[in-house]
Amino acid sequence: MSTGSATHPPSTPPTIRVHPRPPGVAAVVLALLRKEFLVELRTLESVPGMALFAVSTFVVFHFALDATSVSGKEASGVLWVTLLFAAMLGVNRLFVADAEQGGFDAFLLAPVDRSALLIAKALALLAYLVVFELVAVPAFGLLLLEPSLGQSMPDLLAVLALADIGIAVIGTLVAALAVQTRARDLLGPLLALPLLVPIVIGAAKASAPLLAITGAGGSPTRWLLGLALYDLVFGLIAYAVFDFLLED
Amino acid sequence: MTVLVMSDSASLTPALQLEDLERHYGERVALSDVSLSLPAGQTLVVFGPNGAGKTTLLRVLATLLRPHAGKVRLLGKELPREGWAVRGRIGLLGHAPLLYRELSAEENLRFHARLHGVGELRVAEVLKAVGMEGRSGEPVKMLSRGMLQRVAVARAVLHEPEVLLLDEPYANLDPAAREQVTGLIGAGSGCTRVVCSHDPSGGVAEADVVLGLREGRQVMLKLARDVREGDIAGLYR
Asked: In terms of CA atoms, which chain B residue is nearest residue A39?
């Protein structure tokens, strides 16, 4: 190693700067959500695609099952498989703008708690799921379901809410992992589907009695509790590992 | 390997210290045995052909990449362990503008301002400083490359960083725009600067220290005044 020594005046004296206090998690989540919804409103890349996919799938089921209507377990299976695959479209798009346009780097350069990104993205995905289900569930009721949705709607909303929370958390976790790989469109569903199967099972079991011709029974409580527990466990796992997913 | 030691006074407190820095991408060596010390307020200009490791060096300093060996200290903090302590003090202007195409310049800068806890008045201030206040409402996908670069400059200096990491910062800028942004990111900005450049005369003119990289290895480290004609050209042969 050769070592040189020299004195050289600086270009200009270094400026002493007073730095603003880093923003709190809530402020960062709000900023990220605002950006997320602005980008989605301008591009319409996620929600319309999810809704269109779901409605098209119900039409395909209508012909494939060769039945004008379904009910009970069959209806529940059709509904949840369709909602799951439609949700995967949103999961796959969740971080694409950030990865392609440098949003990831911009976020990593900011002096903020990185779990804010997990919270914001999961909330954004949850919002997309809710909006697309506002179209997809009534469409299912019109196109395929034999009994009316009206009576069972309050219980079905509870099932939808618990399932959507789980899909949003797991979807965000998997999307953050997959988007950093070249095969993200393949890897996202491959990683997500096994983790989402318990949610589909729980949601389908809880919905089946609600969609039966015999009238709306309540959702089996154990399936609702199971969904809530699954959401909680994956919420904690996501919070614990999300930082590491963002690291180089 | 050469280590250039700047001696003398408190004003020359190192803002950046590298010791045997290494970084790989799989089997490929992107940086190897890079060592230097840069006093606060000075400018390090990095030259080297494409693939020499310039951008990787900037990304390591920006805390976006982890060094695989060696030591990196920036503003007295060791990276990556204390990266959190320097993130808000770094301004990165790389090849990507880090702007959402569908959002306007103003919306993008407001988003960045919120991430850095900066007031919204500063957004208007930097847009004016780069001469983009008249087009600030248009989606950035509608802007020319030069305009996009000006918005990217505004984004990089929005939070008044102490360290500027600049990768060919004057790319796509016309002379007037170049002059306009020089006050923000030039030697007079008061920032410690690391600048990647392919412009030998312009680069050396704004440098205090010059680093030459080739295939990830440090092949030259000199004070700018000691750089001879042909030193930089030699890096590209």
From this structure: B102
- Between A6, A39, A107, which is nearest B102 by CB? A39
**pTM (2 decimals)?**
0.88
Q: Which residues in chain A are contacts of B98 at CB distance < 8 A?
A: 101-103, 105-106, 109
Distance from CA of A90 to the nearest CA of B (A): 18
Q: How far is CA B147 from the centre of its chain?
A: 19
Query: SS3 letters for chain B?
Result: CEEEEECCCHHHCEEEEEEEEEEEECCEEEEEEEEEEEECCCEEEEECCCCCCHHHHHHHHCCCCCCCEEEEEECCEEECCCHHHCHHHEEEECCCCCCCCCCEHHHHHHHHHHHHCCCCHHHHHHHHHCCCHHHCCCEHHHCCHHHHHHHHHHHHHCCCCCEEEEECCCCCCCHHHHHHHHHHHCHHHCCEEEEECCCHHHHHHCCCEEEEEECCEEEEEEEHHHCCCCHHHHHCC
Of B7, B87, B101, the CB nearest to A101: B101
Domain limits, chain A: 25-246
Q: What is the pLDDT of residue A12?
A: 56
Substitution target in B102, B107, B112, B141 with the highest count of A β-carbons within 10 Å is B102
What are A143-181's pLDDT values in tens digits?
888 878 888 888 899 999 999 999 999 999 999 999 888
Residue B33 CA to residue A198 CA, distance in Å, equals 50
**pLDDT tier at B120 (50, 70, 90 boundaries)?**
confident
Q: Per-residue pLDDT tens for A41-91?
A: 999 999 999 999 999 999 999 888 877 788 889 999 999 999 999 999 999
Q: Phi and psi at residue B222, in whole multiples of 5°?
A: -145, 155
In chain B, where the domains are located:
101-160
Strands (E), chain A: 2-6
Residue A212 has a pLDDT of 86
pLDDT in tens, B57-105: 999 999 999 999 999 999 999 999 999 899 999 999 999 999 999 999 9
B188–A11: do the CB atoms touch at under 8 Å? yes
Interface test with A, best of B114, B138, B220 (most A CBs within 10 A): B114
